[in-house]
Amino acid sequence: MALYEILHDTTYRYDSAVALSQQVAHLRPRECAGQRTLAHHLEIAPAPARRSERSDFFGNPVTAFALHAPHTELIVRARSRIRVDPPAWPEPAASPPWEAARDHLRDGLSGHAPLRADARDAGQYRFASPFVALGDEAAQYADYALASFTPGRPVLEALLALSARIHADFRFDPAATSVATPVAEVFAARRGVCQDFSHLMIACLRALGLAARYVSGYLLTEPPPGQPRLIGADASHAWVALWCPGAGWIDIDPTNDLQPGSGHITLAWGRDYGDVCPLRGVILGGGGHSVEVAVTVMPVEEGPPPRRGGRPARAADAPD
């Protein structure tokens, strides 16, 4: 078991006054297997005129708020305390052949086989979504994936193999992409960040008819030996979950080529990044703007609070 204190600070600065702002935040970590939110507090400045809490279509906690008074700066700080129990992932070799996993959902969704409710929910993650376009591009993703998804191979063995190939074939490069970069460009350039690699892996899996969803969250990063942990030195993260009949959702982090453990904290999940953006909205006015995001994942057992400093993480609309 691990306990974490998470700080997620977002600051928008506008060139001119914003007259009206409507925002939606995915900043409260969701409850899920092996993870529990012990405390959560969301501070918003200026204070919103309206604020409400709800769950979105995917079951993620959402805070919606509106600012009606003119403002040139918006600060949103989320503080959460999370308990994470390391997951016990199933033995990959014992999983069903990947074709059986594909056919299980395909036949069930077409009405030829009964599906449990959790499998019916998984079916929605088999199709293209705004950030994971398929269409004419699906063939190239399927061809790439089939080098790992050989005939009859256990689906989780194939999943791990695909993750290893993405990790080896693609270079982590924060300057190569933006939040709007299409998967096809990432595939061609062979570089990007965790959001890109997650979208690419999802495209490969969906092109084979498998169900894959996008998971946003946080990743514990360690400071250099002998150095204190710095506030704002961590970053948002993203990975993938695949539906496996009999085992449920199995997570995989292609950016680091590993299955998430106690250092991964789930924030939200959906079809792609667009469903789980930490903070998004519409404004009236403002002109140009800048945004700064600082994320800290701090083990509670570390003792005294860390000193301030460190380089802010990338902007809220780019999780790396």
Order of SSEs, N→C? EEEEEHHHHEHEHEEEEHEE
Helix content bin = 10-25%
Low-confidence stretches: 303-320
Strand content: 35-45%
Structural class: alpha+beta
User: What does the main sheet amount to?
Assistant: 7 strands, antiparallel
Which term fits the overall shape? globular
Whole-number mean pLDDT: 89
SS field, number of helical segments: 7
State the total count of DSSP E strands. Answer: 13
How many whole angstroms does the radius of gyration measure? 20 Å
End-to-end distance: 26 Å
Describe it:
Helices cover 21% and strands 35% of the residues. It is of the alpha+beta class. The two termini are 26 Å apart. It contains 7 helices and 13 strands. The strands form 3 sheets. Strands 1, 2, 3, 4, 5, 12 and 13 form a 7-stranded antiparallel beta sheet that branches. The protein has a 4-stranded antiparallel beta sheet with strand order 10-9-8-11.
Summarize this structure briefly.
By secondary structure, the protein is an alpha+beta fold. 21% of the residues lie in helices and 35% in strands.
